[in-house]
Amino acid sequence: MHEPPGQPPTASERPTRIAVDLDRIAHNLHAIRAHVGVPVMGIVKANAYGHGLVPVARHLQAQGVEQLGVAFVEEGIALRRAGITTPVLVMGGIFGRQVAQFIAHDLEITVSSLDKLRQVEGAAESLGRKAVVHLKVDTGMERIGVHSYSARAFIEAAVASRWCVLKGIYSHLACADDPDSPMTDQQVARFADACAHIERIGAPMPLRHLANSGGVLHFPATWLDMVRPGIALYGVLPDPASRATVDVRPALSLSSRVVYFKVVKAGNPVSYGATWAPSADTRVVTVPIGYGDGFPRSLSSRGEVLVRGRRYPIVGRICMDQFMVDIGHDSAWNEDEVVLIGEQDGQVIGAEDVARRAGTIPYEILVGLNDRIPREYRGGTAPTADAAAG
Ligand SMILES: *Cc1c(COP(=O)(O)O)cnc(C)c1O
After folding, report:
1. pTM above 0.90, yes or no
2. How far, in Å, is the centroid of ligand 1 from the Cα of 16?
3. CB of 40 within 8 A of CB of 32?
4. How far is the CA of 325 from the centre of ligand 1 (A)?
5. Which CATH number fits domain 252-373: 3.50.50.60, 2.40.37.10, 3.30.2130.10, 2.70.50.60?
6. Hey, CA dihedral for 59, 62, 63, 64, is it positive or negative?
7. Confidence band of 272 (pLDDT split at 50, 70, 90)
C-alpha cells in the first residue's frame, strides 16, 4: 500500500538521526562573544549537551574558543585523547586520588575547599609538577565551593600555595535564567566581596568568571573576565522566562522516518496500557525511536512531531523503540521524514517546546539523547561520523 517512490535507504542505516550544524555553534559562539566582549569558556559537559563531545570541542577550538569546560575528569581526558589542546577546566568536585590524572592530562582543577587545596598541593608536590587551579566560591547555590563569607583563609592559602597556579576564581549562578530574580545581584555582590580580598592582600587577580547562559543573556554585571555558556552555545534558551537577548540558533535536530502505516478503528486503543483510543477511525503511523534512545516517555499522548510540514500528536505510550502518531485523515508514506526536534517546511519544534510538553527543562531533553542515535555533522570542519565516535 503506502510504499514510497524512489530509492530505498541502505539496509544498515538507521533512519533515526541527530544532525548537528557546526556552523550554528560557531555563529552562537561569535554572537555570545560579541555580546559580552570577554573571552568564552565553551561548556561541553554531558556529551556537549547531547551534540557530541569531541566534534563540538574540536570545532570550538577551530573557532578560537579561549577555554573549554567539562564536569568530570573523564570528560577532560577524552578531550585530551582526541588531541584537543585548548585549556580545559573540570568544574565538578574532585577526589584527592584523581589529582594525578588532572596533572598528567593538563586539566585545570576546581578547588572547592581548603582540604581539597591541600590534597592538590600534596599530589602536585609528589609529582613535582604544578597544578593549575580555579577556586570555587559559593555565593548562593549551596552546591560545591567555600562560602563567600568564610573564604578569606581559603583564598590566602591558595595565593600562598607553591604547587598551585591560581588561574581563576569562580562561582555559579542559581537563578540567572530568570531576568527578574533578585538572587543574581546578591550573588554578584558576594562574589565581588571574595575577589576584593585578593586585592586587599595584594595578590594578582586571577580570571574571575561567574556567568552561565542565563548570566550571559540577562546580567552584564556577571560577565567579568570570562563567561561560561552551555545551553546558549547550542542555540537553546535555558528557561521559558529567559529573553533572547543574543541571536543564538539551535544547532541540533532530531528526526526519524515513518516505518509503518495503519488505520485504527474507533475505540481501539493504541500501545501499552491501552491509554488512548481514537473516537473515529483514524490513520496512525509508527516511528522507530523511543525512550531507549532517550526520547522521554513522558511525551506519551503529549508530544508532537512534524510530518510533511504538519504537526501531529503522539498517541498512546511511547515504547522503548517506537511510538505512534495520529495523522487523522492525512496521508503519510513509509520513509517519510518525521521531525521530533527541528524544522520542516517552515514548521519548528524547539527543544524548549519538547521540554515544556515533557514537564522538564531543555537541558534534560538534549543530554538525554543517547548514543543509540547516530549523529551527523554539517558545516564547519565537518568531522566524519567515524571521527565523531572517537
Ligand atoms: C553547566 C555549567 C555551566 C553552563 O550552564 P548553562 O546554563 O548551560 O549555560 C556553567 N558553569 C557551571 C559551573 C556549570 O556547571
Report:
1. yes
2. 29
3. yes
4. 35
5. 2.40.37.10
6. positive
7. very high
